[in-house]
Specification:
heterodimer, A: about 110 residues, 6-stranded mixed beta sheet, 11 strands, about 0% helix, about 55% strand, globular, B: about 110 residues, mainly beta, 7-stranded mixed beta sheet, 4-stranded antiparallel beta sheet
Chain lengths: ~110, ~110
Amino acid sequence: KNQVEQSPQSLIILEGKNCTLQCNYTVSPFSNLRWYKQDTGRGPVSLTIMTFSENTKSNGRYTATLDADTKQSSLHITASQLSDSASYICVVSAQAGSYQLTFGKGTKLSVIP
Amino acid sequence: DAGVIQSPRHEVTEMGQEVTLRCKPISGHDYLFWYRQTMMRGLELLIYFNNNVPIDDSGMPEDRFSAKMPNASFSTLKIQPSEPRDSAVYFCASTVGRRNSPLHFGNGTRLTVT
């Protein structure tokens, strides 16, 4: 069964600090991995999309890494801001052209002053 | 670009009533998706359309749920009759059919069935 596991479930950090969120998946075959940010009361917003051949991708202060061999991904947030408080969802696509995405349950990040 | 627009934002209804959720996708997007999000199960795909045609409805829970896309700019998700276990946030998303295009989500409809 295709699964995406995220850790930690929740995280509290001080403003200005860095943090790393983890995603492990068992989806096969693998097409791409996406990270989304979901603010409270809003829909998810795409941060990055990585294919099998990409092992790192940045979007401003967000950097995602992918190890397709170990089926792990991480999302690193640098110099956190209060506006980074949100849930971060890891999503894996099983095959090219398929929209049967497997979603993780997300990591809830709280950035405090 | 107004993004994906969903209405209503909140819906409270009594068990047994019919509920209709509405979605306007981003202009030019040829794929439209309906998702349901709960704390227990996270985001689940209910159904998706390509060029207004339903492609995969295997995620629709049961016959009480139905979805239509009469044209490229409008879709509805209907629940009849509604039950308390249908309480969730329902999201509509759209995208263009290009490799690795991101999904663009609306801000959802929070449904409460009492």
